[in-house]
């Protein structure tokens, strides 16, 4: 089977309107996240632009998970209760989930987003644990596999061939992607992220999340995402039927000084965060 050239892939993707820009609300939330003088009112102003995101944030704030002792009726109140980062993470998740919510017969989209959310939660925890000089772990984890959902939604025939090849030849999906497309979901995700004008730290994490030390400047964040990806797969059903999993980079685990005991200590955190995934994703996926 001849590989589809990346040039051909990009040319076809150029015609897909949904891939042309990142949702405006999400882009503005990312800008607020990187603004050191931003406050709750700035977050509220951007989130209120999207009624779906607003409703999700308020629903989460009033859920038993956060134990509010009064009704939370505004985004600014939600920020006070849950914290700046938590509200932003919820808003970003809803924005991405709703952007790629189209169900398919090839891919369990809900399971996919569950994995991405678990990776995001784990990456956020890891960046605090290793005192990384970044707060992009959640976003990078959420978007690390975005290339794969692009394949599923817009290139279903090629994606079906990839899955079939991985099963029949007993190879990792990553290798099947290279054979069918000439590139991997990391390459596709990188191209989409660049098109969305995401910062280099995030585009690198998406491109190199399977080979973190191929990234010279952002290898700490990329290693965090790689490790979070591996850990989250151990605690979810995502790609559980993959015959040959993609190899993990032991150097990334060593860089973060993680052994099996430390990895297992993250299990409780991941489990608690995943308790509200159904509420967060709702009717999407």
From TrEMBL:
This is HDOD domain-containing protein. Residues 19-212 form the HDOD domain. It holds the Pfam family HDOD. Gene3D superfamilies: Hypothetical protein af1432. Coiled coil: none annotated. It comes from Candidatus Abyssobacteria bacterium SURF_17.
């Amino acid at each position: 089977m001849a590989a589809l050239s990346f040039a051909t892939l990009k040319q076809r993707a150029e015609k897909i309107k949904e891939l042309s820009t990142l949702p405006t609300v999400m882009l503005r939330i990312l800008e607020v996240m990187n603004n050191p003088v931003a406050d709750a009112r700035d977050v509220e102003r951007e989130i209120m632009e999207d009624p779906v995101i607003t409703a999700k944030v308020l629903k989460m704030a009033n859920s038993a998970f956060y134990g509010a002792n009064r009704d939370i009726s505004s985004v600014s109140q939600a920020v006070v209760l849950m914290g700046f980062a938590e509200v932003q993470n919820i808003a970003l998740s809803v924005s991405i989930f709703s952007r790629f919510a189209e169900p398919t017969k090839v891919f369990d989209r809900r399971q996919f987003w569950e994995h991405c959310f678990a990776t995001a939660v784990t990456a956020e925890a890891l960046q605090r644990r290793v005192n990384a000089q970044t707060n992009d772990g959640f976003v990078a984890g959420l978007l690390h596999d975005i290339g794969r959902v692009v394949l599923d939604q817009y290139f279903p025939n090629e994606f079906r061939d990839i899955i079939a090849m991985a099963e029949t030849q007993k190879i990792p999906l990553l290798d099947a992607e290279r054979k069918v497309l000439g590139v991997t979901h990391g390459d596709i995700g990188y191209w989409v992220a660049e098109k969305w004008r995401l910062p280099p730290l995030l585009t690198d994490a998406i491109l190199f999340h399977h080979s973190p030390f191929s990234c010279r400047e952002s290898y700490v964040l990329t290693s965090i995402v790689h490790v979070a990806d591996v850990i989250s797969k151990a605690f979810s059903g995502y790609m559980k039927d993959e015959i040959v999993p993609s190899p993990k980079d032991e150097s990334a685990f060593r860089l973060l000084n993680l052994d099996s005991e430390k990895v297992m200590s993250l299990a409780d955190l991941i489990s608690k965060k995943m308790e509200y995934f159904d509420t967060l994703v709702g009717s999407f996926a």
